[in-house]
Amino acid sequence: MTDARFPHRHLLGIQGLGPQEITTILDLADGYVEQNRSVDKRKTLLGGRTVVNLFFENSTRTRTSFELAAKRLGADVINMQVAGSSIAKGETLIDTAMTLNAMHLDVLVVRHGDSGAVKLLSEKVNCAVINGGDGSHEHPTQALLDALTIRRRKGGIAGLTVAICGDVQHSRVARSNIYLLNAMGARVRLIGPRTLIPTQVDRMGVEVFHDMRQGLRDVDVVMMLRIQNERMKGNFIPSIREYFHFFGLDYEKLALAKPDAVIMHPGPMNRGVEIDSDVADDVERSLIREQVEMGVAVRMACLDLLTRHLPETGGKS
Amino acid sequence: MPARAQSGLVAYVNARLVDPATGLDAAGALLTNGETIADVGPGLFQGGVPSGIEVIDCQGLCLAPGLVDMRVQVREPGEEHKETLRTAGEAAVAGGVTSMVCLPNTEPVIDDVASVEFVARRARKNGLAKVYPYAAATKNLEGGELAEMGLLFEAGALAFTDGVKAIGNAQLMRRALSYAATFGAMIVQHPEEPSLATGVMNSGELSTRMGLSGIPAAAEVILLERDIRLVEMTGGRYHAAHVSTAEGVEVIRRAKARGLPVSCETAPPYFALNELAVGDYRTFAKLSPPLRSEADRQAVVAGLGDGTIDAVASDHAPQDADSKRVPFALAEFGGVGLETLLPVTLELVHNGHLGLLGALRLVTCAPADILGLAAGRLKVGAAADLTLFAPDRGWVVDPARFRSKSKNTPFDGRPVQGMVMRTVIDGRPVFARG
To answer: Which of 241-280 (B) contact A at CB < 8 A?
Structure first.
């Protein structure tokens, strides 16, 4: 049986989650923020549980965040290195799933470069699966940590205007945030050159701007996206210099947003490409460090909720 | 199956004769003598069948010409783990198909006389559906040099195509059309501008939501429009395979109105499914060209209704499980179709878009005429290639029961109507549903 307030076996995306379910995660995460700030950070809620981080794409931040979250809850954590392993050498996802099933995991955190790959894996494994980012599709825990960051700073999400700027085309962070912010009653704007704004994205309930100054006018939150050089298969933008001129966040453009507008970035940042260094480091406006902190708490909440239906281990506090 | 009478005469009585070529749709009988049709008509055997003739009671079911499937990938030689000429032949006859045209994208490629003869010989030996090859338009399908079209045509290649690849270079396409026309041969194009068709599904809201790269409808439209110009320039005979978009249908419609030597076909997925079938990353619905929007689907239906689209082919593309049980972007394109060609085409009848004769024409005499094949009609003296089917009998598509070696159908689990009960090739019974 899954928790009545979060009746899902996996967390594969924000699409399909309702505001109540999102609120359940955020409320729980709020408690973990306090725990993480206290001297004794460890709980034994997941004592005896095994959490595996299976990352097909390089990631330090997200993997570390999940690792810390699981360890703070008392779980055993294994990081499976994919580069150079049998998986990278052509073992199929299905074979990987069979291998993992034999290891009796409780939670599997997966990041994969292909949209839908995490869902495919979730259909073949016995444990709970958390999507740590799949292709250009979804990155649900990022959207949740962004939401928690916004909620703690602004007191709520409903009624805010949030601008998501940059490479929306290739961004799973943008997609998850569009679903989440819409579900929670925020107004979402997308800002970027036409080559980086996906087809018919307006049907996802967003307003699209190609002039950053117009798009930033009176917004409460500015979410910058990383320009993903590794995903650029063609010539989407002519040069970094030109990109920064029109779509890089600097104080001049930021001045058009509300005076108390905050700045977010999922990291890792390309300073001087999508965001000016001074803006990124502005302690008054930038929530980038808080985002990292919220990330651990949100992931603890997700691990907590997804393991509630599992049988007791005796290690439970 | 009863042994045939010594006389070599077989009477199919109590049939609903359906022959789109002549517009015949009436109760009657058909007589075969050895390999050919000896007589056919509503009045035949009204006074009873003379002794010495084997009698098959059709029980009022439709007796029609065997289906002609103008676009099939058989995978032999080279990828026999996906399909062979034998398994494709078995799937064909189970689907009522008595003639099929295979694409040259095998390993080795069908780009020389020896491989044309290999396919013909192997298919003859199997004694199942007749197999006619398209040969490669360019050597090794590389889009570089022209294949030996003249010699290949003489050896029995029906037309020329680079298979699932578009002939993208305009100068090469111009020469292919022009050179083929020297021999009265046709070029069959996979109409997608290659530099635009780099995605994995239809471009639109759904691809945006799923985070998958899209193929815009314009990829098809652009190549069709370019090709139509080249047809005008060269006078070459041109056939567009699996047309999938509303605007693509419109381009063909206008070209035909201008009297250009252009024809086209579509495949069941493009009039029976839309892009929503790929929701949840269903790789069995990953096809090339991709399943399009609902508006496109409706335009394809309209194109079939007004005759802009000449024919329907199965676009049979077998893929093994390993090619499909991977993340969507990495999965191979294509779906099997031989065993669902008839029932899904009959949906056009059951949904009121076409009459039975009109729908059957798309899979019998129409493709035969495009290809210049003497097939697809109930004609005295013609080969006795027949299919007997129950037009309304319902069943649910279950790939586990397919004869095809590969099970990758986009119609998995779909309730359909129209069941093939018996298939006859050159007077020989090759399939009977038990």
So the answer is: 280
Joined together, the tokens standing for residue B281 give 């990353």
Which pLDDT band, with edges at 50, 70 and 90, does A316 fall under? very low
High-pLDDT (> 90) share of chain A, %: 77
> What residue type is assigned to position B330 of the chain?
L
ipTM: 0.91
CB pairs under 8 A between A and B: 67
- Report CA dihedral (B191, B192, B195, B196) to the nearest 10 degrees: 150
Cα–Cα distance for residue pair B123/B99, rounded to 1 Å: 11
Mutation pick from A82, A93, A96, A114 vs chain B, by most beta carbons of B within 10 Å, is A114
pTM over 0.90: yes
Check if B162 is active-site.
no
Task: Give the residues across from A207 on adjacent strands.
Answer: A189
Distances (CA, A) of A181 to A157, A177, B243, B273: 7, 6, 40, 32
The confidence score (pLDDT) of residue A314 equals 52
Helix (H, G, I), strand (E, B), or coil: what is residue B311?
strand
Across the interface, do A135 and B203 touch by the CB < 8 Å criterion? no
**A114 vs B contacts (CB less than 8 Å):** 327-330
Sole residue written with tokens 């894996």 = A121
Q: Which of B111, B112, B315, B385 does the annotation list as catalytic? A: B315
Q: Residue A288: name the closest of A222, A210, A204 by CA.
A: A222
pLDDT of residue A234: 59
